[in-house]
From TrEMBL, chains A, B:
Gene3D superfamilies: 3.30.420.40. Pfam families: ROK (PF00480). This is Glucokinase. Transmembrane segments: none annotated. It comes from the Bacteria. GO terms for molecular function: kinase activity. Belongs to the ROK (NagC/XylR) family.
Length: 336, 336
């Protein structure tokens, strides 16, 4: 940055984060502040057209808060996307109409800005590296346990992308071959065992099998809506032994996956985020103990698990950093 | 290579491959031919000093076959090593005296050559990329199922190294949480389920539980020496139903791990090698069917599993390529 002019140093970037629950937009300053932040529930039942229009509207509103014209728009999105083209692949948990959707091109035309689109986990990892829990780290894995399980790998300073930009799906590694069926169709993926809905379903199975239990009472009290992960978390905090057992088993699976990650990636750090993991802060210490004891040397001595510092803001802050990525940022600007 | 002088183009490199069973050495030509190849059983019961002396001797003999002074020595070794220094970490299946052994420095002094040391799986992956099954591929995973399970990942054209050069231990990912204890101490690693000795132990457990079975007869016929993977392979070929069942279960674990690998790395290719896998050629087709059906899109459409083309020569050929690696090759030469 030695030769950067003041204008470049004080640049802003428009950021959009399309999550499973919320769509958020903001102007992000070069030093990671959010201006004009907007947030609206993702109308997941609506058509792709409506969601696209909402995205463009929120981004446009957030742009009004920028003191200078933003350098471009970075978009962080749940589900798989081709980062080189901004076209969505068939996302497992969204309407089928999203498959092949040219999200990047649409927003470029609507907003007349350079646009880069990437997976939300990639964006969040970049944000933690620049502003959060792993500043300056060159080798780390970002793992988020939430409604789904997302992950991103930074190796030797670069995002692990794979042939199609779809690498990093650590939630779809089988950890329990006889476990529950996953949304992806396989049995016993980490996501099918440890994501929020999976925890709810485990509690539901337990309630069905044990009509007198506390979890059965919880189930009845919900009047037909499914038990969710946070219900189980609350029950465990209130001392329900079955809820505690379920969360302990989930924690063991997450911890074992983290040991696997240390053996596979030999990272300096693993950043653990997502609502489910943030509600179980003991997982951090348990994972650190387990990897010291069970991962291979020398990786076991180097790695350390740390909690996210940016939490829900990671995707939005990271979206703004996508335009700095050497691989696709440059490519999109050339297309302008 | 447009500006390469004839001498550089026709260079040779000395290569040493220190395996669990054999130590091999050769002069490798720039186009991948082996000259003056030497091979001797690894005296695994001997001291580190004796093994080092044998390595230096074999390399020196192989050097005599080189028509020009070799550019340096590349060493491919089983077990973890710091590729930047050539110092061995504590290898799981070799004498404890190897921990901290400065293999690179020793050979540099003995042979008066630039020396680069790396994991055998990394070397074999580079060899398959230059001379074998994945010429020109930028994103692939090399997986060898043999006495142990080794792996290397090439992502965006570069070896995945991790913070200490120890990344890629895909054999130490848990695939069967209730499975047999692994040499690394965890339960149910892929290596504890699918490597040759693990197959032998599974057959042994079956023989003990079923005294009248074909596997029990096989066990008795060995007079106290343990059943090994290749015995089970022969029994399966001869129609023994229990041996077939054991190998089918092992194949399913390997295939499931390959689907995991596709989700995690989004590779163009997976190269499957090693004695155990090469004896089960049906695993290639089974893995391709499974990943088409079960891996996430778009990775499932891109990936293809292919057999090794170089087999046992991969480590030796790849050792010679280590000196071309931008990261540590240059570093070692500067130390000269």
């Amino acid at each position: 940055m030695a030769n950067a002019s003041p204008e470049v140093k004080n640049h802003t970037t428009l950021a959009l984060d399309i999550g499973g629950t919320w769509i958020r937009a903001a102007t992000v300053t070069h030093d990671g502040r959010l201006l004009g932040a907007r947030k609206q529930a993702n109308p997941t039942t609506s058509s792709a057209t409506e969601i696209l229009a909402l995205c463009a509207q929120l981004a446009d509103e957030a742009r009004a808060a920028s003191p200078v014209p933003p350098l471009g728009l970075g978009v962080s999105t749940t589900g798989p996307v081709n980062p080189r083209t901004g076209v969505l692949y068939d996302p497992p948990n969204t309407p089928a109409g999203f498959s092949g959707l040219p999200l990047g091109q649409y927003l470029r035309e609507q907003l007349d800005l350079a646009v880069v689109v990437d997976r939300d986990a990639n964006a969040a990892a970049l944000a933690e590296q620049r502003f959060g829990a792993v500043r300056g780290c060159t080798d780390f894995v970002y793992l988020t346990v939430s409604t789904g399980i997302g992950a991103a790998v930074i190796a030797d300073g670069e995002l692990l992308r794979g042939a199609d930009g779809a690498a990093g799906e650590l939630g779809h590694v089988v950890v329990a071959p006889d476990g529950p069926v996953c949304g992806c169709g396989r049995r016993g993926c980490l996501e099918a065992v440890a994501a929020g809905p999976a925890i709810g379903r485990a509690a539901d199975r337990h309630a069905q099998a044990n009509p007198g239990s506390g979890l059965a009472k919880l189930r009845d009290s919900l009047g037909g809506t499914p038990i969710r992960g946070h219900h189980v978390g609350v029950a465990a905090l209130e001392g329900d032994p079955d809820a505690r057992k379920i969360l302990a088993a989930v924690g063991a699976a997450v911890v074992s996956s983290i040991v696997d990650i240390v053996n596979v990636f030999n990272p300096q750090r693993i950043v653990l985020g997502g609502g489910v993991a943030m509600a179980q802060p003991n997982w951090i210490e348990e994972a650190n103990d387990a990897l010291r004891q069970s991962a291979l040397q020398p990786a076991s001595e180097t790695a350390r698990v740390v909690p996210t510092e940016l939490g829900d803001n990671g995707g939005l802050l990271g979206a703004a950093l996508l335009l700095d990525q050497p691989d696709h940022g440059a490519r999109h600007r050339r297309q302008e």
